[in-house]
Amino acid sequence: MGSLMKLLPLLSALLWAGNGVALAADYQITITGMKFGSPPAELHVGDVIVWRNDDIFRHTATARDKSFDIDLPPKSKGRMTVAQAGTIDFYCRFHPAMTGKLDVRP
Ligand SMILES: [Cu+2]
């Protein structure tokens, strides 16, 4: 059972994009010490980001353009699919000094 649970996130990454051969990827961005970890260098529409809050504080991952707003209670994870290409600045609604940027290719 343990090994199956480890395999599930991998299986979920094996997603066909349209009729092409591109595979969506799973990435994790960890928040720790009141800071967002580095975003993935290469990110595409359809990829999945798992936001992981390792802090004892509640955070959010909120897009300035309002395209996403993920609530992250302490020690929780939130999952989203990247929906649009472009540069998306994000921040935490509770701690506006926490910021980051996603660079999404089509
Ligand atoms: Cu915060």
From TrEMBL:
Domain of life: Bacteria
Record carries keyword Signal: yes
Signal peptide: 1-24
Classification via InterPro entries: Amicyanin, Cupredoxin, EfeO_Cupredoxin, ET_Amicyanin
Gene3D superfamilies: Cupredoxins - blue copper proteins
Domain EfeO-type cupredoxin-like as annotated: residue spans: 12-102
Pfam families associated with the record: Cupredoxin_1 (PF13473)
Keywords in alphabetical order: Signal
Protein name: Cupredoxin family copper-binding protein
Organism: Rhizobium aouanii
